[in-house]
Amino acid sequence: MRAELRLLRLIIPYRGLLVVGLGTTLLASLLDGFTLVLLVPILKQLFGTAGALRSGSTQLEGLMDRVVDPLVAGLTPGQAAARLVVLLAAGLVLKNALSYASTQVSVRAQEGLVRDLRTRLFGHLLTLDFGFFQRTRGGQLISGIITEVDQTKTVITASLLSFFRSLVVVAVTLFILSQISLRLTLLTLAFVPFLVLGLQKLLRRLRAHARDRAHERGEITATATERLGAIRLIRSYGEELRETAHFKAQAERYRKRVIRTQRFSSLTGPVTEVFSGILVILIIWAATKPGLVGLGAPLTPEAVIVFLMAALRLTSPFKTIASFPAVMAVTLASAERIFGLLDQPAHEIEAPGDEPARFERDIVFDQVSFRYDDGDLVLRDISFTLAKGRVVALVGPSGAGKTTLADLLPRFHDPISGQILMDGVPLTRIGRRSLRSLMGVVSQDTVLLNDTVKANIAYGSPGATAEQIEAAAEAANAGPFIAVLPQGYNTVLGERGTRLSGGQRQRIAIARALLRDSPILILDEATSALDTESERLVQQAIERLMQERTVLVIAHRLATVRDADDIVVLYSGGIVQRGSHEELLRAGGLYRRLYDLQFRGEETALGVRV
Ligand SMILES: Nc1ncnc2c1ncn2[C@@H]1O[C@H](COP(=O)(O)OP(=O)(O)OP(=O)(O)O)[C@@H](O)[C@H]1O
Ligand SMILES: [Mg+2]
User: Fold this and answer.
1) pLDDT band, very low/low/confident/very high, at 154 (cuts 50, 70, 90)
2) Which domain holds residue 201?
3) Does 94 reside within a domain?
4) Which residues line ligand 1 (CB under 6 A)?
5) Ligand nearest to the CA of 556
């Protein structure tokens, strides 16, 4: 569907507000016209020509005489003028009160639209597959959620209300003008097509430029967020100047885009202004020509004044109407980008036939193969069984596919062939939410949010009490270091938890999984080496976490593989060995080599006897 229509559909919930807004706008415009024509009798009283229809008098003057005469009957010209001025002032106050009300109403409607669209976009992004986030720069998404969504609100203020207001003002003003002199009005109007055509030509290319500008704005947001997030890296390698130069180039590209877009959109003002200047002179000249005004005599001075004022009032609404395509071009460029994101197929949707997950027996990998997008196979023909209550350790060199294999269990990805069965039911038939509710995941690099310790541990366990949170932290050996943080459990951890050391972050993540207390645990042990004391604390925490659970662990620690019931050795996407630690050591091969390289050092450090 076209972006215009989709935007209009989003306005439907606010139709009540819009009707009020349009209604007040209509009233305000009518009052506006009324205060304008009230000038005619006031000027007449001041010029001392009241009640006398002279040659060159217009229909409007006759009309106003009939309306105003009863109001001022029996008054001196001075009193009459004063009374009319009071009426005019009252009309002005009321008109502006109505305009104000209409603006307030439209702000409510537009901000409602913005909130709805923003929330929908954010919610939709959470359903997209991981691949999307790898292909798309985060800054483009942030710019979409913040800037582009804000841009769409002009559809209400600029398009609907201003456009409508302009139309009403034009109609009212044209009526007034035609009551003064129909011919002169038509003469004035004859100029409008030139204005509109001239502007149209300018605006045709604006939408494409606006789209480029929006893209460039996303890029600049992306660069800023990425690079500021990598401040440690930049400092360590002394790349500040080059980063600034890189950013400057980006800012320069954005500058060019903005200038190019503005070149078109800001031409509308001057073009309209020159146009109205010419029009004024033309009207004054024509007003003195009886033939042109069609009255047998030149217009009376008060009629000329009101005609000029009315005619000049036309330029602003005409400008609005004429620049409407420009404003809409920018809005629609933003809307297209937002709808482009909303049209990304949701990946994480629950299908109607999805079964709830049940886990009593085992999880079976049956000839599972997988590749990312259209790359090479990363896993091939993987078959093994993870029985309830057992611990399976995955070991293998870096890049062997261990993390990828573990990611298949919570259905972060689905196999391209073969299947994974939980109690005999293929995972693809089980709803993702329900499946994941059975699982606790501790990933290779710990993810912490800029929130309190408490909130970070309770993430994913919204109902947890303070006692439960503290118990989990104690079991994860995190209690002591949390106790000495400035606000204890209420300490905010800083962006990505940078307040804590690596080992402390790991223990928070373990506490999180402990609190969730799910029957299945997927544990990707961190590869970063910790000092012996820290290592011992983390290892203890991991052992508590693994107790009485079904565990798939990607093991980088000797203690973990020794305790595993079954070890699966992965090499380049395939299983090359399986068995217990002792069996595999005896058998030699890849496990033996990995053991010599990776684990042996730990024996002496931890005092473990093999
Ligand atoms: N998102 C991705 N898109 C494309 N290829 C990927 C992606 N993630 C991983 N790969 C590739 O898949 C292979 C396996 O990666 P994986 O992360 O599973 O290795 P790993 O065994 O966990 O390694 P490590 O021990 O270093 O963590 C690697 O060759 C990697 O380049
Ligand atoms: Mg990995």
Assistant:
1) confident
2) 3-342
3) yes
4) 134, 372, 375, 378, 396, 398-404, 444
5) 1
